[in-house]
Design a protein that fits this description.
Elements lengths: L5 E7 L6 H10 L19 H12 L5 H17 L2 E8 L9 H22 L2 E9 L4 H14 L4 E7 L11 H9 L3 E6 L5 H11 L3 E4 L7 H10 L2 E4 L1 H7 L10 H6 L3 E4 L11 H12 L3 H14 L4 H7 L1
Parallel strand pairs: 1-2, 2-3, 3-4, 4-5, 5-6, 6-7, 7-8
Helix pairs in contact: 3-4, 4-5, 5-6
The structure holds adenine and zinc ion.
Length: 320
């Protein structure tokens, strides 16, 4: 599986930080993060909302554009090692300069330079998706969308929303998404990881994403699966994350195979790999073991990801 070329469309930049990297930065900056690690050095959390606060605590040691350049290098090395040739990372002005547009420009520049260096060294291509954080509220989402709109280009190509899906309604965030769409950013949104089929339908109606982060609870409603299949909305499915966070009890009951068989376009990603003790090779291995997926299925998945990628056509041609 390691050698199969992989594309990853759903990766949180800070969530992909190796724990040792975060511990190293904490030591440099004299920040005590001992509470967020297990004795074996992995991240420690208990349930989704605790996961979000551990994530934010780990992120607190990333304090400068230079820190983000180092993070970008560490994350892309990890992905390239797993055979990933193209990755889209969620980056948040909330963590990069507190949504100040000029500070955000500096962070984005540092991330981009590190990504271009990694592409030269390791052949991995990265694009960035600005992501607002739902539980930070609609006002901050608007400021985040403004940062995205001011810096959209061939590297920063998308806008999305992560965070606690049970907070607020899609309508609360419509202004931010409309601003992003007007700036010609491509749109994705976390929905249907925790939210029910009705809330997924509302997200599709109001925020009009072309991809959904997770979206797996759509499998509870055949009519919604039909709608997704017909409209071609692509799901960024992260099975290992769903198992680790308790969205589903185990791999065997994960709905990815049912979604795929219903004609829904699915892709596979890791979300926050070190948090969930996973990586793209492990996801592929588990999918092969659990559902009997072979190279042909993984090839189909990769082609879906190329089609759904938020990058230019020239890059897509190269990836195919
Ligand atoms: N931020 C990082 N990982 C996330 C997830 N799985 N769901 C929502 N927000 C997130
Ligand atoms: Zn996510």
């Amino acid at each position: 599986m390691k050698d199969l070329p992989k594309l990853e469309l759903h990766l949180h930049h800070e969530g992909a930080a190796p724990p040792a990297f975060i511990r190293g930065l904490a030591a440099e900056k004299n920040v005590d993060l001992s509470g967020i690690f297990e004795p074996d050095g992995s991240y420690r959390f208990d349930g989704f909302t605790h996961f979000l606060s551990v994530y934010e605590a780990a992120t607190s040691v990333l304090q400068s554009p230079e820190d983000y350049a180092r993070l970008t290098r560490a994350v892309l090395e990890q992905s390239a090692e797993a055979g990933v040739i193209y990755t889209e990372s969620f980056v948040s002005p909330d963590f990069c300069g507190g949504r100040d547009v000029e500070a955000w420009r500096d962070y984005l520049h540092a991330i981009r330079e590190a990504a271009e260096q990694a592409e030269r060294d390791m052949g991995i291509t990265m694009r960035a998706i600005v992501t607002c954080i739902r539980h930070f509220g609609p006002e901050k989402a608007r400021e985040t969308a403004l940062c995205a709109a001011e810096t959209v280009g061939d590297f920063l190509t998308g806008f999305g929303m992560a965070g606690d899906e049970m907070k607020g309604t899609p309508e609360d965030f419509a202004y931010a998404f409309d601003m992003a769409r007007e700036a010609e950013l491509r749109i994705t949104c976390h929905s249907g990881e925790w939210g029910d089929p009705k809330s997924i339908a509302r997200t599709l109606d109001v925020l009009r994403p072309e991809r959904l982060g997770h979206g797996v609870r759509a499998a509870e409603d055949p009519r919604l699966m039909e709608r997704l299949a017909e409209s071609g909305v692509v799901l960024e499915v992260c099975p290992g994350s769903n198992v680790a966070l308790g969205v589903v009890p185990d791999w065997a009951s994960h709905p990815i195979e049912r979604l795929r068989r219903a004609g829904v376009r699915v892709t596979v990603s890791t979300d926050d790999p070190p948090f969930f003790h996973t990586g793209m090779v492990r996801e592929y291995d588990r999918l092969a073991d659990t559902f009997g997926w072979d190279e042909e299925v993984f090839r189909e998945l990769a082609l879906t990801a190329v089609d759904a990628a938020f990058c230019d056509d020239e890059t897509k041609t190269r990836l195919r």
